[in-house]
Amino acid sequence: MGSRPAPPLAILYVYLTVEKPLLENDFTYALNHIPKPPDIIIEYWDRYVDDVFSAIQGDEQTVDRLFQYVNQLNPDIQFTHECESEVPYLDLLVSRDPTTNSPLFNIYFKPTNLGIFLNYNSHHPRSTIINTAKNEYKRALKNCSTDDLKSKAFKRISYTLLDNDYPSYVIDEILKDVISNEFKKSDVSTAQHPTSVICLPFISEQCSRKVKQAIRNQDLQDKVRIVFKPGTTLKQSLVRTKFTPTKCTSQSLNTCTLCQQYGRYEYKHCQTKSVVYKIKCSLCDDEYIGETGKAFRCRIRTHFLSVKNKNRSTALGVHFLESHADLVSIPDQPFTASLIELCTDWPNRKIAEATYIKNLLPAINTQLVKTNTKKKQFSVDSWAVF
């Protein structure tokens, strides 16, 4: 949690381990190979992140059997379900028409919704205040299935706007404008699409309004479309001045393990930041893959001091204490380090580190996993459920 690749990776994991076996009968990535019961027929399955809306043939017992099967595919992912006459899904309330047996959609308000909108008397731009109310009406107009449901949704939104100090005449104008614009959009056959597109640089909001007003004055809004392109930003204009790697700033070779190994004037990456690196033990040739956002030499120096002082503060320190415990004295160069990939940010480093560990299977990383497994033993009662 907290990293940018977490949501797409979670969605991909759910798809490969649950949905692909369930919907496509493909158990390539499934944790358990359990065939789906043949009498369970899924008519519709739609998921948004962790919310699933499904329609199947059968009664409530069939639904229970389906989710018992789904929860067996991946024991780490357990679904709960609701089977009622009205089911909330995202911002919709889905029900079924008793006469036609077709689905009905209505906008959904959570029971905890306090009805707080952007207040009409706030100091926001007037267009922002009006468009906030318009968007609520548009949502009801777009999602409600019948005119009766639309009318009820309009009333609830109007009462909420009144509670947020919207004048009644403003509410009537907003609703009238939304409905009239919707009728204009529905008449696609008579609409005239712009035949010409003009791309202009964006200077200011006032200038853009004057250009659009000139187009309207000439009655060209149906023939010409104006697109404003932002100018070059300061970040795009500036260039890097660091054409060569930063030289080592250590006072002596003893404080930079990398320059001590490769030579002060031969190695040019000791000051590089945000890297994935590989360390090879000089005694047993075991390898370790790691990452750091600090200067490369600072992280290697930390590993070196951990080995020299015989503590467990780093992976190399643990390795020398457990694999080379009978060693009398630490050699001058207990390991060699090399940079294997330069990364852009923290998620990029973590993904690259995990990829190298999976492909190279470094022995020291595997040793750490086994050591931590022995040390950390949790009982079932120690887990907290959120």
What structural class do the secondary elements suggest? alpha+beta
Instruction: Based on the coordinates given, report the CATH architecture of the largest domain.
Output: 3-Layer(aba) Sandwich
Portion in beta strands: 15-25%
**Topology-level CATH name of the largest domain:** GIY-YIG endonuclease
Number of helices: 12
N-to-C series of helices and strands: HEEHEEEHHHEHEHHEEHHEHH
Question: How far is the N terminus from the C terminus?
Answer: 14 Å
Question: Could you characterize the architecture of this molecule?
Answer:
- The chain contains 12 helices and 10 strands.
- The radius of gyration is 32 Å and the shape is flat.
- Helix 3 (126-143) packs antiparallel against helix 4, helix 3 (126-143) crosses helix 5 (168-186) and helix 10 (315-323) crosses helix 12.
- The protein folds into 4 domains: 6-83, no CATH class; 95-184, no CATH class; 196-231, no CATH class; 253-374, GIY-YIG endonuclease.
- It has helices at residues 6-24, 60-73, 126-143, 147-163, 168-186, 205-217, 234-237, 257-262, 296-309, 315-323, 346-360, 363-375, and strands at residues 42-48, 51-56, 87-89, 92-96, 103-107, 196-201, 224-229, 273-281, 287-295, 335-342.
- Helix content is 42%, strand content 17%.
- The strands form 4 sheets. The chain has a 3-stranded antiparallel β-sheet with strand order 3-4-5.
- It is of the alpha+beta class.
- The longest helix has 19 residues, at 6-24.
